[in-house]
Amino acid sequence: MTDRNSDGNLDLNQLRTFLAVHRAGSITAGARLIGLSQPTVTTQLQALEKRLGYRLFDRLPRGVAATDAAVELAARVAGPLDALGGIVGDTAPAQPITQPPVRLAGPAEMLAVQALPVLAPLIAGGVRLNVTAGLSEELLAGLRAGHYDLVVSTVRPRGRAVVAEPLADEEFVLVAAPAIAERIDVARLRAEGPAALTGVPLVSYAADLPILRRYWRHVFGVRLAADAAVVVADLRAVAALVTAGGGISVLPRYLCTARLATGALVALLEPEDPPINTGFLVRRPGATTRPHIDLVHDQLLAVRHEW
Fold first, then answer.
1. Model pTM greater than 0.70?
2. Which of 54, 57, 168, 173 is most buried by its number of CB atoms within 10 A?
3. Candidates 3.20.20.70, 3.40.190.10, 3.30.70.100, 3.40.50.150; correct CATH number of 170-275?
4. How far is C-alpha 295 from the geometric centre of its chain's CA atoms?
């Protein structure tokens, strides 16, 4: 097999094979899509990579991840190849493709409380998910490396390697259990700020108290100079501990709405301008050509007004 046709152009069969694997997300599924054996697909991809001089796919435990160069190549050749297929007719057997799981990642709390419940109808329709929880910066690095398909991020990503769409605004609330709230002079808190909280234990999801520090700076206009009494890397655990009277904390409102409604938690302040953080749904440009990735992406964006 040569890397070029006799006229010197790249082999169209290799490009069709590449596009099938890119769309299917795995060599096996791509081979099924175009009616070739897996070894033949692998050979064609290797020949195309040799001719182009760069790697097209990174192998994963399940499937493959397209490199940035492959994403760009797919964007360039998909339209012409699809148009050509429509003219000459597609002789490959039409077989349903088993889509690999959509690799969704994000903060554990946001995934559990907001994202996954709205994806339940897709699961019934055959969509599979492989869900990873973690910190946004680490997950965004994994997205750029091709380890994830979609990331729910609490920070706006930088650079052109990914595309971010606004997903939800998190409003932060300073909360305590009723028994703790009764011991705090709320009038003094409003008038003098955090001095009224001296001696009250702080509960945080990280040692550097990022949410608490942001609240102190935005609402009180001062720098928080204190250590957390408890650090637990799960905001749901923070909410549970504060509800049990273990101290005070700042939580996203979506995570404590039910507790505030029942009185299990009390909002110590309701500022006119509460601190807000925007969450984003992030993907690599041109990488979500698999139908199930698009379904998950579109479903999350369709219900973002409910978050």
1. no
2. 173
3. 3.40.190.10
4. 14
